[in-house]
Model the fold of this input.
Amino acid sequence: MNILVTGASGQLGAEIQQQSKQINHTFFFENSKKLDITILKDVKNYIKKNKINFVINCAAYTSVDKAEEEIEKAIEINAKGVKNLILALGDMGKMIHISTDYVFDGNAKVPLKETDGTDPINAYGVSKRLGEEYFLESEVEGVIIRTSWLYSSFGNNFVKTMLRLGKEKSKLQVVEDQIGSPTYARDLANVCLQLLESDFSNKQEIYHYSNSGVTSWFEFAKEIMAIANLDCEVLPIKSEDYKTLAKRPYFSVMDTTKIKEDFNLNIPFWKDSLKECINNCQN
Done:
């Protein structure tokens, strides 16, 4: 297959690029500077010229707070960009589209299933849900993978921020009342590559993927400091005392049973994957 990976400069795109070296397909890794998915003509020309028949769409507008002020830009990339890829692929291609736990409102009490209703509470979540809807209303075959709390040794993310601040500060305040499951982008990259060999003929599926286990941002930060041996005290704070432009879901733990059973996956525990990532960051 000729596989286009969009958002190649981001965390997940970079991990897929690194992990794909042993995979027997032809990969094309592009960032927004090389391929702007918001321009339909460019996307069509690229896919036709390179005979692309599979897309892993990692391209996204991910600045959650900034999206409150740039909702049109977020929708342009996270929704219309998805539609352009679908239109360019036509009925000859397949797609893995990466989405987010932020399509939910955060009011659940039990892990979220793929069939649960969506109700995003911020502009970023709205834009990502629109992208999902374009996918589900199309004829394209493939899957949507919703993930949460993504981090990697590449790009900007919570883990790298905590590692930096842990070296600079003696104390940090981190929100304790937002609950979810961290996801190491390398683990998700390997899942995406495994799914390339699946038969998506005449079907679309939604899957939830995150590392196993549940934590808060506060406990996550404490674990980062412990693994990295950083002498920085992490103090809990409530969401209401940490003002942000965008509301965050209080509970975004996702049920990963479906993807585990359909693809016989053994999903690593979040602390184990975190150790691996921090080791990569420090080497």
Remarks:
- The first strand starts at residue 2 and ends at 6.
- The first helix runs from residue 11 to 19.
- Residues 5 and 56 are 5 Å apart (CA to CA).
- The two ends are 34 Å apart (CA to CA).
